[in-house]
Amino acid sequence: MRRGFFIAICAFLGFTACAQAQRWSVAAANHWYQRQPWRVGANYIPSDAVNELEMWQAATFDPQRIDQELGWAQSLGMNTMRVFLHNLLWQQDPAGFKKRIGIFLQIATKHKMRPIFVLFDSCWNPFPRLGKQPTPRPGIHNSQWVQSPGADVLENPAQYPLLEAYVKGVVGAFGHDPRVLAWDVWNEPDNTNTSSYGKLEPPNKVVLVLALLPKVFTWARSAHPEQPLTSGVWKGDWSSPAKLSAMEKVQIGMSDVISFHNYNPPAEFERRVKWLEQYHRPILCTEYMARGVGSTFEGILPIAKRYKVAAYNWGLVAGKTQTYLPWDSWQHPYLHRKPSVWFHDIFYPDGRPYRPAEVAFIRGMTGRRPADRYN
Known about the structure:
TIM Barrel; about 40% helix
């Protein structure tokens, strides 16, 4: 009798583990989202970091700066951030990297924020290197951001066990941590960076990532995280499943919650939200706000709030990433002139708002009173 009971318990536990390793049901995803406040935040990197490696490496990790800048975000009523990690950081020093993530989460919790962590990223420089990071290239938007994994790893399947160890290690360490909101497994996986590093990309990059992305979802799920997984679609026609690219089918088909990027004016933003509603899952816009092309807080936030779409603008504090410069600075660097309008970012490095009226608008949308700065 006792033996039979033991076998039944083991079978139940095995079933539970298997269930946890599967994509969330529509009901489970919506139940999770119903317990969330409207999430409003930014894609965050400290103003003194040129890329995600400089943000996280022990020699340049800056908790004081992070604390100060997340305080400015809290003053806007923001309650979340989207933050990029990197596989090389785990490979270099797993224990130290976990410790620094823990410190970041302590700071975020102090400011009443739960971050989304991004595991991999196909944007910008395909040759990341550990150690001292290069200085910003004058006048160029996001000039030293690095991909994860780099092209050398992506093209070498023998290196994939290192990627698996990173995903399972990070998600395993923080997958049951209530301070983490969600996991974005791969940022813009089919981005080939044609306007910047395109000539340096592997010619079969999209094919390689398309084969690897489902594995990354599976690795992350095998750690049984309590938080949802996602990967955001960012281009193309999502009006029907038949029009999705192969990559988009994987992204939407394996995500627990749907996420997307959109830097277009309000009408196009709303149209894409309606396209994604057909999947009946929570929707997160993990990148928006580019003033120069018509994506603004005033135009987008009211729509996002109406549909309860989580909204993460690109950039918080203007700094070494230089994302206040427009994308076309790659073709025409801003060497002896300033942009007529900041492209991204909200604050100067000293905490002054770029546009005080814009800051007031964000506070109005989030219900944050101007006097409520850091409490």
